[in-house]
Amino acid sequence: MVDVSVDDASHIDHALNDAVETVKAAAICNQAGIMITRIGPGRYIIRAHPAVPFGLIRQQHN
């Protein structure tokens, strides 16, 4: 699991892409997809998640 916080909206894509790359090994190992959850303004949690089919990335907002 990776926690991402950004202050500038122009940095979100880069930060999320880096986090997905970090989590990708765990997702492959567990045959799970990746869930990106927005938990607040500029705050995200990225993790391998068994509810997401292997090979997919899903986003949700809390």
How would you characterize the overall build of this protein?
With 62 residues, the protein is α+β, with helices and mostly antiparallel strands. Helices cover 29% and strands 39% of the residues. The protein has one helix and four strands. Strands 1-3-2-4 form a four-stranded mixed sheet, with helices on one face. A hairpin with a 2-residue loop joins strand 2 and strand 3. The model has no long low-confidence stretch (mean pLDDT 96).
Secondary structure elements and pairings:
Blueprint: E1 2-5, H1 12-29, E2 33-40, E3 43-49, E4 57-61
Parallel strand pairs: 2-4
Antiparallel strand pairs: 1-3, 2-3
Series of secondary-structure elements, N-terminal to C-terminal: EHEEE
- What helical percentage do the residues reach? 25-40%
- Mean pLDDT, nearest integer? 96
Backbone shape: globular
Q: How would you concisely characterize the structure shown here?
A:
The protein has 62 residues and is of the alpha+beta class. The chain has one helix at 12-29; strands spanning 2-5, 33-40, 43-49, 57-61.
